[in-house]
Amino acid sequence: MKNLFALAVLTATLPFATATAQAQTTTAAGSADEAAVKAVLSKYQQAVQKLDTTGTHRLFTANSQVFESGGVEGTYRHYAEHHLGPELKEFNAFTFSDYKAAVQVDGPYAFATETYTYTINLKKGPQDKEAKAPIVRRGVATSVLRKNAAGQWQIMSTHTSARTPRVKK
C-alpha cells in the first residue's frame, strides 16, 4: 500500500516537476540568448566608438535594412561603405554614455531597444581656427535580430534616431 501511495504521489507531481524544469531551462536559454543579443549590440557600439567598421558586416544579415533619422540607408554593407564609414573618418571621437538596452527574445528572433547619449568630436579642418564644439545627442535604436543556422545572432533591421538633449529646467 505504501508503494502504491508513493507511486501515486510521484505520478501526480511529475508533470509539475517537468514543467518547472522546462521553465527553468527556457529561462536559462532565454537569458543566454538575451546576453548573446546584447553582445552583438555591444560589438557594434564598440566598433563605432573605435571609429572602425572593419568586420562589423558579420553582425548583420546580408539583406539587412538600416534606417536612420527618417532615411532609408539600404543594407548594412551599403550604409557602412557610403555613410557610416566616411562619416567616422571626419570624427576625432564618438562616445556613448547613459546606455541602456532592453531585449525580448521570441524563438529565433529578438527585439532590442537601446537608449543612449552620444558625443561626437569632429576633426579640426585646415580652414578651422579652432576645434568645433562637440555634437551631443540623445539617441534611440530599435533592432530586430535573427538567430542564424550556426546559432549566431545577427541584426536584420535597425532604426536609429536622435535629437538634441532637452534642457532640464
UniProtKB/TrEMBL annotation:
Protein name: SnoaL-like domain-containing protein
Signal peptide: 1-23
Keyword Cell division tagged: no
Gene3D superfamilies for this protein: 3.10.450.50
InterPro entries per the UniProt record, alphabetical: DUF4440, NTF2-like_dom_sf
Organism: Hymenobacter psychrotolerans DSM 18569
Keyword vocabulary terms for this entry: Signal
Residue span(s) of domain DUF4440: 37-155
Source superkingdom: Bacteria
